[in-house]
Design a protein that fits this description.
Elements lengths: L1 E5 L3 E7 L13 E7 L1 H11 L4 E8 H13 L3 E7 L4 E8 L4 E6 L7 H12 L7 E5 L10 H11 L3 E5 L2 H7 L6 E2 L3 H8 L6 H15 L3 E5 L5 E4 L4 E4 L12 H15 L3 H16 L9 H7 L5 E3 L1
Parallel strand pairs: 1-4, 1-8, 2-6, 4-5, 8-9, 9-10, 10-11
Antiparallel strand pairs: 2-3, 6-7, 11-12, 12-13, 13-14
The protein binds adenosine-5'-triphosphate (ATP) and magnesium ion.
């Protein structure tokens, strides 16, 4: 089974306001809400790929209930811990006249180390050898910076393969516990190594350095519209980005993580994994917001993927 962990979820509320103006009454013309947060996005995409996952993490209040109900209505299995406080609602205001994008984000819940440990214990009670655990995204206020280090170590200890997708200190601390796979983008990898990495050759060298130093089995470096680099101990494949009409690039990385987890569980070859995840990333870029692309769109893009063995 694949378990996704979202410790800091959000209800993404996207509204359209033509000619948004401060100090004035603004009227919304269209609006939609989507359960969001990186692990939740991963679960939504895994579902579209025809695989099962259990979405876990922390929710609070009416917003937490709304997220859980929305996920269950999509047919996703959930197992969230409810805590005091209110899960954040992140408001995205799109102004189609002035072509602006304004984010207004709530603070969300605050957790104690004790709550985090309880949530981890609950997860450890469910997972076992052969399972895949996806840890991704930011942490709620009150979380120690080495939370992902603790979680990676514990989930590995339970015999699972851990996929970590985080940035900054959460990533640099998390990798010290040797996750199975990480998926930084080129900027996150550059920050981690403290030098600018631009070409696939530079990125491969950096990825191999990290793999050897930290005992990481696989690294996928995504490069937005320029595609991605897949590095394992035996192989390196560079996949070109697919030219597609861009709806929203939000969550592109999450859809790549979803396909990596699904491919890992199915025991796919690296080449098939690269085709699937490149197509999944591009298909999701074609959608608006964090809506997950339908599988027929993904399937249609697979034959267009161009890859190079390095
Ligand atoms: N403009 C684009 N056109 C085609 N494919 C894209 C585009 N942007 C992203 N992708 C696909 O999605 C993958 C992941 O994108 P990206 O590198 O932006 O992830 P990310 O920075 O981790 O994103 P996020 O964390 O915001 O979800 C890319 O490797 C590529 O396959
Ligand atoms: Mg990302």
């Amino acid at each position: 089974m694949i378990y996704t962990v979202t410790l800091n979820p959000a209800l993404d509320k996207t509204v359209e306001i033509p000619s948004l103006t401060v100090n004035s009454v603004n009227r919304i013309t269209t609006m939609r809400t989507d359960p969001g947060g990186k692990g939740i996005n991963v679960s939504k995409v895994i579902d579209k790929l025809g695989k099962k996952s259990i979405a876990t993490g922390i929710l609070g209040g009416d917003t937490g209930n709304a997220i859980q109900s929305a996920l269950q209505a999509m047919g996703l299995e959930t197992s969230f811990r409810f805590v005091e406080g209110e899960t954040r609602t992140n408001l995205k205001v799109i102004d189609p006249v002035n072509h602006t994008n304004t984010d207004i984000n709530e603070p969300g819940v605050t957790v104690s180390e004790e709550i985090l440990n309880q949530v981890l214990e609950e997860l450890l009670g469910k997972i076992g050898t052969g399972d895949i655990v996806v840890l991704s995204g930011s942490l709620p206020k009150g979380s120690p910076k080495d939370t992902y280090h603790t979680w990676v170590r514990a989930c590995k200890g339970a015999g699972t393969k851990v996929i970590l997708d985080a940035d900054g200190e959460l990533l640099s601390e998390g990798i010290k516990a040797s996750p199975y796979l990480i998926k930084p983008n080129n900027h996150e990898l550059s920050d981690l190594l403290g030098r600018t990495l631009a070409t696939p050759e530079e990125l491969e060298k950096a990825a191999r350095e990290l793999m050897e130093k930290n005992g990481i089995a696989k690294i996928v470096v995504s490069m937005g519209g320029d595609g991605a680099l897949y590095v394992t101990d035996k192989e390196t494949i560079y996949a070109e980005g697919l030219k597609v009409p861009v709806g929203s690039t939000v969550g592109a990385g999450d859809s790549v993580v979803a396909s990596l987890a699904a491919a890992e569980e199915s025991g796919m070859s690296l080449e098939d994994t690269v085709r699937l995840s490149t197509a999944t990333g591009a298909a999701n870029v074609m959608c608006s917001g964090t809506q997950a692309a339908e599988y027929d769109v993904i399937e249609g893009l697979i034959p267009r993927v161009v890859l190079h063995r390095m």
